[in-house]
Amino acid sequence: MQFTDFVPQISSWQDVLAWFAYNPKEPLLFNSARFLKLFVVFYGIYLLLRNTFRLRIFYVIAFSLYFYQQSSGFYFLLLLFTTSLDYTVSYFLYRETDTFRRKLYVWFSVVVNLSFLAYFKYTNFLIGSYNDLFGGSFDFQDIILPVGISFYTFQSISYTIEIYRKEITPAKSFPDYVFFVSFFPQLVAGPIVRAKDFIPKIYEKLHISREEVNYGLFLIIGGLIKKAVISDYISINFVDRVFDAPNSYTAFENLMATYGYTLQIYCDFSGYSDMAIGIALLLGFELPPNFRTPYKSSSITEFWRRWHISLSTWLKDFLYISVGGNRKGTFAGFLFPSLFFFGLILWGVTYGPDSNLPFILSLGATLLFILTFVLSKNKEKTMYTNSNLMTTMLLGGLWHGASLRFIIWGALHGMALSVHKIFLEFFPSKKNSKTTVGSAIWKVFSVILTFHFVAFCWIFFRAKDFTTALDVINNIGKVTFEPEKWQTIALGYKNVFLLMLIGYVWHFLPEGFTQFMKQAFNKTPLVLKAVILGLAYWLVYATASAGPQPFIYFQF
């Protein structure tokens, strides 16, 4: 392999322009050979600039903007507009002493940012809803969602709010703020980085230790295998096919596709996060962990402490607490649950002439939610808490997409969190208690129950529409114990099922084993590490059924 393999050849001005040409069918992805080549060249120059400050900042900004331009086209201009707006607003906000004007500044920033987000994510949803409800005839707009807009918007909003709350001081200069928002490892799919954690690191003396490089490479290799080998393979060769036409497949295949997607979305998203954190470590920056083996959780509350940690923390700090948290009730905190349950009952009544089941389910869900605070010892406080929790999860579902299925997904998790809270009130967990046979069995049962609830919710998340989700659920309900038929199906998908087995075993490995692999990798010579990384990329292309696949969360 020669240096010319990494650096494009220049023979004309058109060759230079071609570097900046955006191809929506081939966006720049971490799991592509093109990114590997670009990063090798970028990293070599970065190391040469490591003892500089301002030049290194501008260099990383330039590469980050190029990375985003190659991922989302001219929408990198929107990214620059967002950073310019929030930096300017925050500059005046920090120096303002009048309470009313401070609120005006922060609301202006939030409203403008969310307006852009709403336009790209919800315009067609609102048009469709209006046409359905009022018989309108508005045409749908041809709107392309900029990659990662939700992530950098939330990150930029948090900066303004933290300055408003006087939790941080502003970045020292505009380039420093652009560096924070556009930092390419986490730009398009997180982890969502808080300004108070990241910005101070910009001004620290850059130090890239051997341990950081080792751990960074370890995470990149693991993330690459999770995303490009396990997630992409089972998606293209099994999961996508079943969810596209669930009624064309057996009940057992529908069940296994649900297990497959449960693993796919974890490997896809945590794989990206691992690569992002690993690349950041190579640059001398430590990003917060985003996943902690979430399917090991023994409750839905624990699941949300392990799954997409940066988003769940953001929602807690900037949404849940803002609408009242566990302290008080607010109009917004009661509005969204009320609208949801009203709509749910209305749906049940609408389908009443055809079947009583929708009405029974909608009424049952409403009564169950009411019972979560009626049965509580502190009814008022629990009502506030559960209503605000439900609001957070409903809006969290809507954040993922303007669709009924995402709202249902959020509502199911909100209901589960509320039920778990009342369960703990009657059956509090005993801390520091000795492990007994009974407690071990209960732990295993709790993990299995939580896992299957989460997998059930993923059906709504993955299905292309609500009807398809119900088809999958209905088909799974027809599963019967037929070992011979199961074996025949398993042999037909032997590679898919083998990768699913490897993925789940990997996920449920004890933490000690993961630490052992990390330590063994640390002791491996640098040359061998490079060989392992090369083998990982070879494995990606050896198992690829198509080109590099975009990450699932790019669409959010």
TrEMBL record:
Molecular function in Gene Ontology: acyltransferase activity
GO terms under biological process: alginic acid biosynthetic process
Domain of life: Bacteria
Transmembrane segments: 28-46, 74-93, 105-123, 143-164, 331-351, 357-376, 406-428, 440-461, 486-506, 526-544
GO cellular component terms, A-Z: plasma membrane
Topology of the protein relative to the lipid bilayer: Multi-pass membrane protein
Keyword Acyltransferase attributed: yes
A Pfam family it matches: MBOAT
Annotated localization: Cell membrane
Keywords for this protein: Acyltransferase, Cell membrane, Membrane, Transferase, Transmembrane, Transmembrane helix
Transferase in keyword set: yes
UniProt family annotation: Belongs to the membrane-bound acyltransferase family.
Name the record gives this protein: Alginate O-acetyltransferase
